[in-house]
């Protein structure tokens, strides 16, 4: 004989927004419904008394799981790929700005690195054009090396990474770092190291840029130094 549920609490959900997110249970990009609810005490299935608000929650359209709004902090796969691609591009430009572009080996390595990151149509002219535009914006490249000639700028004694470029590195890398495994953060740093080493040893300006990259990627200074030293040793 089945027992009748005399009293209980029922939640009535209302959809207030939708979008796409990375579903923790599905392990991939899915659509979601953002919902808010009201809890009501029921007697014999009939709502009789409000028990307060519920949610908001995200309901996955695929698995129907409910998640807190902090699930939106994890980038979708598409967004993550774009963040990683942009990060490689920013690191490459910062290193070229610091070390100059007079070396063909450096230019070739930079182009290959950016292409491998997802900018398949990247060319040497593309990077040089961007660097020339940055060099013309003195507020962003103060204290760097001349991006076109490879010579040292007149702003000696200032931050070789350029204050604004350092800020841009942090803005590009810090949101990405928590979503990268340690090996991924190290790989990104080493990609920059290979660009800097394409024409020989690190210059002081390149070394400072790479230290900024390591800090933005949440790597300890000792780990950054270890990786940069290992990159100089042929395997």
Automatic annotation (TrEMBL):
Gene3D superfamilies: TerB-like
Coiled coil residues, start to end: none
Highest taxon above the source species: Bacteria
InterPro entries: DjlA_N (IPR007791), TerB-like (IPR029024)
Domain Co-chaperone DjlA N-terminal: 166-227
Matching SUPFAM superfamilies: TerB-like
Pfam families: TerB
Protein name (record): TerB family tellurite resistance protein
